[in-house]
Amino acid sequence: xxRLFYLLLLLPLxxxxxxxxxxxxxxxxxxxxxxxxxxAIDDLKHDxxxxxxxxxxxxxxxxxxxxxxxxxSKLIVKGFINxxxxxxxxxxxxxTVTNEKKPRLVIAGSDKRGTIYGIYDVxxxxxVSPWYWWADVPVKQNAEAAVDCDYYASGEPSIKxxxxxxxxxxxxxxxxATNNFEKELGDIGPKTYGxxxxxxxxxxxxxxxxxxxxxxxxxxxxxxxxxxxxxxxxIITTSHCEPLLLNNAAASEWEExxxxxxxxxxxxxxxxxxxxxxxxxxxxxxxxYTTAMRGVHDAGLRGNLPLEExxxxxxxxxxxxxxxxxRHIGKKATEIPQIFVPYKETMDIYENGLKVPxxxxxxxxxDNYGYMKRVSNPEEQKRPGGAGVYYHISYLGAPxxxxxxxxxxxxxxxxxxKKAYDHGADRYWLLNVGDIKPMELGIQTFMDMAWNxxxxxxxxxxxxxxxxxxxIFGKGNYQEILDTYMRxxxxxxxxxxxxxxxxxxxAHTGLKDTEFSFNHYSEAQxxxxxxxxxxxxxxxxxxxxxxxxxxxxxxxQGAYQMNRKFLMAQLxxxxxxxxxxxEANWAAKQMEAAYDSIEALNHRYxxxxxGKWRGMMALAPAFCALFQNKPDVTYxxxxxxxxxxxxxxxYTLDGCQAIDLSKxxxxxxxxxxxxxxGYDWQAIQLxxxxxxxxxxxxxxxxxxxxxxxxxxxxxxxxxRIAVSVDGSEPQIFENNFKEYxxxxxxxxxxxxxxxxxxxxxxxxxxxxQISFKALDPQQIVQKVIIDxxxxxxxxxxxx
Length: 799
Prior knowledge:
Elements: H1 2-15, E1 19-21, E2 25-28, H2 35-52, E3 60-66, H3 70-77, E4 93-97, E5 105-109, H4 112-125, E6 146-148, E7 152-153, E8 161-166, H5 173-181, H6 190-202, E9 207-209, H7 223-232, E10 235-236, H8 256-259, H9 264-282, E11 289-290, H10 307-329, E12 338-340, H11 345-351, E13 361-365, E14 387-392, H12 410-422, E15 428-434, H13 440-451, H14 464-473, H15 478-491, H16 523-541, H17 546-577, H18 581-611, E16 656-658, E17 665-666, E18 672-675, E19 682-685, E20 688-693, E21 700-707, E22 720-725, E23 731-734, H19 742-750, E24 753-760, E25 768-774, E26 780-787
Parallel strand pairs: 2-3, 3-5, 8-9, 8-15, 9-10, 11-12, 12-13, 13-14, 14-15
Antiparallel strand pairs: 1-6, 4-5, 4-7, 16-26, 17-20, 18-19, 19-26, 20-25, 21-24, 21-26, 22-23, 22-25
């Protein structure tokens, strides 16, 4: 009883808070600590030296330990650590300073990764960004660097397994590693993966899906790579097309002339032998195993089997794989982390009756463009294996790749990931990051949400990346910059400005003029003006650092020049058709200047810091993309050049009305304004919401609106909105589409789906009202225009 009273008295004292200077601190830990923790301690020593300029000489003491060690047990007994913050917890940690005459900084973890996260948390508190190496964020010298010791308990992460997938590395990470960072190997290998793993730990991630394109040596072809990842405590996972850690896209792993057809119906023994050999090599390490199988690389199942034969075949594959896992790992299959990823055609197999064992985690996928294809239904939410997410902020594929620069809005990412989380996807989150660079802002947002989704809501998530930039570069108008940059990319990503579709029919391939009009509402002019203002502003804000160029200046100015390139080519075509040859010549030269500017930006990126990133940034063709090329223009010799005034022109709306979505009359508690997505950077999430309309001198109106193109949340649901004017019988808009169908392709290219309805009205009424009501969950309207004869043809409508 006396001991309990003593603890109750002491514990609040520990939590009152002090600070401990880390200069010259000695770091103590038990011999029982894992080698992964010891390696991270070495990083902490290095970080302290970077910040303070001095290595440990005994001025102060830092204690690092994992729950169960002697040192941490003693600190628990003394009341400096609340045992409940560590015992039985997954990847949790405590940071505090002991309330002693000579205080000590304590970093205690519930398990090895919890301890490691605590170590890197301290590094970040003294000024070492997780991006100090990958984005060259400067480490500021501070001899007085200290850790505030208010008792901090991290709690468990929201998502158990959190990581990245390096993919489509042909044009960035692969040439950079091969010819620059890891020249001695000539490939992506252990040196590169060491840097990747350190980044992951600093971001509180715990898993990695390694690069796996055929241009790269398979992960296990360089045996040191798996050892390096293990030395960091990083779990290896694999993508949807790498069952049981086997990469069939690599010739070293699977070669048809040597191994036969990748067809389980006709060649199962060879495939099983490959899996058996891989598990013999890798099962001693910490892995998450992909079950089932697809075709070679990213193709569908081999053999042209009808769907009714694919279902039992994949069921047999999973059964055989689980037997192999049990034999190699020595545990029941139900105790081994496994995932099933219903990606592309595998979703059809699952939806048509495939019974996946309940302990296997279902990893739901987005459609490669940020929209979740589905989430767990009520029955699936009961499965003990739970669910996860595979999400993209970079992609190579139809209808168009976006590998060059980051442009996925944080609000869209949050909306879709939170939807999945609320339906049970808390087990596994994997982010396709392409080459890692230049996706830094998106990776940070994703990992912070995966660590604690409850720190975010639909309002503050849009502030997250601007806050990150302010923490690095100081005060600046980063929120306005990011909002404008993301808004412009929402209606068309920079990579999509060529208006071509990839892997498509002849009518949709080839570079084309955009749908942004120079003639109606100054759409093209306003777009160029907005981008130029952004470009000028980041130039003004630049501190000359590599970090600022990588994180802010390059994406903004690159996007501007890509838009300028295509819009000036379009202007050349339009002016030439009007016989204005001198002005058309000027536009053609503007296109050439934009093309050269993009080349210069890429070159500058690659030559930063004496060529540190040489080979990372390129506008490669990505198999069939054309946006990196020059669009066709015509230059008329002898016609001279005359500049064109492309200042946006003021206009008035006559015969139409653009609705301000922020001025809604809520008819339900769940209708709310969402800022950070949409053509005008605000949208209304339904519920039910109504808007007042002005008096209209017409007998009927056209209601034109755009919705955010979400998928139905799961089978049995749809995308329906009821629209009514002046209490009339509602008309139903339903957004039905099929992946890779024409409607879906148009929607993901434009980030919207247009709806059009006509309503009869009484033109003698002084005022009208239009209402929108969601008939299915998660419906968001992003633009509404009421037209009674004045709307000019335009993609986005009046802005």
